[in-house]
């Protein structure tokens, strides 16, 4: 019986092919065969406006009849972000403010329909590449030879800069004082971030990205607000960067790196990733999308007690194994680096290519 497992790529050289896509149809400004840089704009579009329904009575904490008297703009008025729409009211001087630049399109009782223009959306390449295809209105396909490191989580942002490694070991704790002026504008590789001060310090330095092994889940809200991409190679908790990824990152220090911290989507194959462009004239194959579990395959453990450990499969066991939890599961014996041989359920393994 064959067993397919989740697959994470950590490749020193491969062909990276990515489709960049506008949220709505627009204008593509590049053509097939053209070379682009990381900051080049591939296409532009104007998404439709967003609408906000503002309840003045609830926002001001007064009755509906009173609320309408405190409205300071008429229908059709243009209002800037943060400008008062209604109020102030009471001792606490409560107000209702515009959530963004826009206009009041309708007023019904004490409720206001506020329209925010979508503005111009620019689709950037993200990494140096060759344009291999485009549909002319919405999508552009890019291809490049590069090192590739796929991660477990990202905060949804994207940027590009010089890679700097400040973690002496894969599990080093990131301290705010490590982030000094020399790292301004860099993509920083650290180990484990377990304090919000480090994330705020990175914001002050205007870093271009932060690559971590892991961080506690209570820092998610802060990571989603910072203006730079944050990538976790392992996930949440206190897990070091896996050895293959750490070795590739440290050997690539000083090179340009693209950090695409897209939020993981269960219906998409693409994941948060680091792309390290490599100048090469040779033809490199695309990475494999499916690898079966078999003896000799490198894997990473996804669950406790060996979560994050990397090793090589020694054997796929024929019969199900009974674990202390009472679960019977198909399993493999795995030679884990720094731990030894362990029996791990197949469901707890992912292939690390």
Distance between the termini: 21 Å
Largest sheet: 11 strands, mixed
Low-confidence segments, given as residue ranges, are: none
Helix segment tally: 5
Strand content: 35-45%
**Average pLDDT reading:** 90
Overall domain count: 3
Q: Count all strands and give the number.
A: 28
CATH class designation of the largest domain: Alpha Beta
Percent of residues in helices comes to under 10%
- Globally, the shape reads globular
- Rg value: 25 Å
Under the CATH scheme, the architecture of the largest domain is: 3-Layer(bba) Sandwich
Determine the CATH topology of the largest domain: Glucose Oxidase, domain 1
Computed structural class: mainly beta
Multimeric organization: single chain
Can you walk me through this structure?
The structure is a single chain. With 353 residues, the protein is mostly beta strands. It folds into three domains: 7-15 and 145-277, 3-Layer(bba) Sandwich (Glucose Oxidase, domain 1); 50-116, OB fold (Dihydrolipoamide Acetyltransferase, E2P); 298-352, SH3 type barrels. It has five helices and 28 strands. The strands form six sheets. Strands 2, 4, 13, 14, 15, 16, 17, 18, 19, 20 and 21 form an eleven-stranded mixed β-sheet that branches. The protein is globular and about 75 Å long.
